[in-house]
Amino acid sequence: MIYRLYRSFLALSIISCALSVSLSQLFLLLSFVFFLFLDEKPKLTSNLVKILFVFYLWQIVTVLYHFAAVGFDMNSIKQAFRDEMKDIFLVTAFVSVQGIKKEDKSYLYKTFFIFSLVIVFTGFISIFSMTRLSRLISDLYKSSSSWPYQHHYGNIGTLNIYLPIGLMNTHLTFGGLLAFIFPGFVFRLYDSWYNKSSKLNIATHSVLLLLVSLVFLFNNARSSLLGAMVSVSFGIYILIFIDKDISKKMIKRTSIILLGFLILLFVGYKSTSAVKRVVDPLFGGEKHTDSGRTFIWDSTFPLIQNNPIFGIGSGNYQKEIEISRKNKEKENRELAFFYEVTQRGHAHNDYFHLTAVFGFPQTVLYLILFATILYHLLDSQIPKSIRFMTYGLVGFFASGLLQCYFQDDEVLIVFYFLLGYLNYHVEKNLNLETSQEIGKVG
After folding, report:
1. Helix, strand, or coil (residue 45)
2. In 10, 146, 254, 422, which residue has its Cα 20 to 30 A from 247's Cα atom?
3. Is-above-0.90 flag for pTM?
4. CB of 124 closer than 8 Å to CB of 193
């Protein structure tokens, strides 16, 4: 009974990541509580578990360091856990996945696939919705006198086209979720071709890939698009050099489909204002946030330089960046306006933000985590279907070059679910290898 409740809440938490972060965290809490009461708990011994433990241990060390530095003022601890440290709870998503029984592996796979479908279809619907779909969820627990509108791109014929954000609140968050699922749709289509599946199966995966591509293109989160391209490139590398199962025929078919999509995109670009407004920013044709990022980064560098080991401390970024920004304005008076108007909530780069807040050791650990993920994805013992589903983890670290997705709990919770899903299979392989070694000794 406890296991069934745990499994149900886990599935609800994963799927509701596409609906509402509040719902997903509520179901995550419930699933983790029931996980703690399971009769059989997994032994977590993989390198991913070890590096995550050290990663968050260092964060706690920096919190204690700054707590002592301010004279043991409890407000320092409270502020830390109101800001960056609050996301430490999301690691329970990684842990909770580990309790799934062997016979329920397909159940877990289907759960992640349903999550992907919800992202695609809500994103596609929101392309044509004048108001944000998130109100369908938020109105269940709070009332509002107004409906927020979506960004209007233009028209395709008589259709009004809007920037799609699904059921999320921002297009960047939704872009982060799209970057996780996009590689899966690419490689599931490839797999159906490679294994000569039925025409219906191939057609279904083709339509899904087309839909997610359109949603991703209209979403226009370039940091996420970069991450998705890195993930897909990594997956292609594995297919060519590790699995060695990409044929010339497959490359030809893929090239034809890609060419057809590009031709369709070019026609749309020339004939409709909506597509033109989507494509132009990708190549710098319209005002974007690129210059703003440079001012944010420039203001962040002094924080790193002055606090290289323990950082400025969790919860202190906005206060410290304000001081740094004012100093930059004095040094560069002709640029004062640009320093003043740029967003300062985070560093718009995961590596800069982590280094500024927790010091260089944290960023080194973050890169080790990335390397560990790459190592396990390169392991041929991990089933292809699992790799296809988790390739988005690779792109997450590329997207972080232009955006603070590690600070976005709506994206981070999915990161930990997928990382836990990968680790689940890593642990199974470790247990199998241990059993084989014991057998040989016996």
Report:
1. coil
2. 422
3. yes
4. no
Query: How far apart (Å, rounded) are the C-alpha atoms in residues 338 and 112?
Result: 42
Contacts 24+ apart (CB under 8 A), 71-79: 76/313, 76/315, 79/314, 79/315, 79/316
State residue 172 phi and psi, 5-degree precision. -70, -40
Residue 152 forms beta bridges with which residues?
162
Question: Does residue 265 sit in the same domain as residue 399?
Answer: no
Residue 338 is assigned to a structural domain of this protein: no
Number of separate domains in the chain: 2
In a domain, 340, yes or no: no
Q: Which of 235, 268, 240, 254 lies closest to 377, judged by CA?
A: 235
Beta strands in 236-382 (DSSP E): none
Same domain? 384 vs 264: no
Residues 161 and 256 in one domain: no
Q: Which domain holds residue 115?
A: 1-41+83-243+380-439
Q: Is residue 323 part of a domain?
A: no
358-389 tens-digit pLDDT: 999 999 999 999 999 999 999 878 999 999 99
Asked if residue 296 lies in contact with residue 340, where contact means CB atoms within 8 angstroms, the answer is: no
Q: Each residue of 304-360: pLDDT tens digit?
A: 999 999 999 999 999 999 999 999 898 888 888 888 878 778 999 999 999 999 999
Are 279 and 195 within one domain? no
Confidence of residue 132 (pLDDT cuts 50, 70, 90): confident
> Is 430 part of any domain?
yes
Which residues, 6+ apart, have CB-to-CB distance to 87 below 8 Å? 407, 409, 412
What are the Cα distances from residue 394, in Å, to 224, 228, 357, 363? 12, 9, 23, 16
DSSP letters of 90-136? GHHHHHHGGG--GGGHHHHHHHHHHHHHHHHHHHHHHTT-SB-TTHH
| Nearest CA among 133, 41, 56 for reference residue 96 | 41
Interatomic CA distance for residues 36 and 17, integer angstroms: 22
Burial of 418 (0-12, 13-18, 19+ CB in 10 A): buried
- 249 and 214 share one domain: no
Identify which of 296, 312, 316, 314 has the alpha carbon closest to the alpha carbon of residue 304.
312
The alpha carbon dihedral of 25, 27, 32, 33 has a sign of: positive
Pure H helices in 127-198: 135-138, 171-194
237 and 251, same domain (yes or no)? no
Instruction: Please say whether the beta carbons of 130 and 120 come within 8 A.
Output: no
Handedness of CA 195, 197, 202, 205 (dihedral sign): negative
